[in-house]
Amino acid sequence: MRLNGKVALVTGANSGIGQAIAQRFAAEGAHVAVNYLAGGSRDEAAKATVASLATEGIGAPADVSKRTDVEAMINSILEKFGKIDIVVNNAGVEVKKPFVDITDEDWQFVIGVNLTGAFVVAQTVVRQMLKQGNGGKVINISSVHEDVPFPGYAPYCTSKGGMRMLMRNMALELASVGINVNNIAPGAIATPINQAVLNDPVASANAISEIPWGRFGKPADVASVAVFLASDEAGYVTGSTYYVDGGLVQQVTKY
Ligand code: NAD
Question: Which of 46, 79, 213, 233 is at 20 to 30 A from 175, Cα to Cα?
Answer without folding.
Answer: 79
